[in-house]
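Hey, can you fold this one?
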Amino acid sequence: MLGIVKGGGSAMREEVRSHRYGRISLREFNGLVREGKWVDRAPCCAVLVPAEGARVLATFDDGSPAVIENRFGDGRVITFAFDIGLIANNITIPKLYRWWSELLSSLGCRKVLDTQNCFVEAGVWEDDSGNQLVILINHDAEREQMAKLPDGTSVTLKPNEARALVLSSPRQRHGRVRNGIPG
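Sure. Predicted structure:
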C-alpha cells in the first residue's frame, strides 16, 4: 500500500528537488544536527526504493527518491523519505511548509486558523458562545512577523513573541478583537 519495496537508515541530504517547488535546501537543518542544537539525528532516509507503479514526486540531491506517491483504488499514499515532524519542530523552511500545507489541503484537511505565515503558530479554542481564544507564537527569533486573523485583521508579533487574543463572537461584537481574556 505504501508503494515501498525497501526503506531504512538515516542520512543527511543537502536538498529536496521537486518540479513544483524547486530546490529546497536542508543545509540549515543539517547545521543544527552537526552542532547538536535541538536535534541529534539526520532527518532523511538512507534508502527508499519505490514499488513498481509508484511515482517519484521529488528527489534528493543525489537523485534518490525523497517523496513518492502510490495510488490504489480511489486512494493514494504519499511517502516522505524524510522526517517531516523532526524538521518542522526544529526549523522553519517556508517552501517545505507550503508544500505540506497544500498537500494536506488537497486531501481535505483544513486549518482551524491559517495565519498565512509559516513562522507564526496559532492555537484556537472556542467557547459555547462562539468567542475564540487565539494564542499566536512568532517562532522567528530575529524578525517581526505578521499573522492574519479570522476576522480579516492582522497582528504583528515581535521576534519570539507569544500573544493571547480573544475574538468575540460575530453575534456579539461583529468580529472585533479584544486583548486579554474576558473576566
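Residues 172-183 have pLDDT under 50 and may be disordered. Let me know if you want another pass with a different chain boundary.
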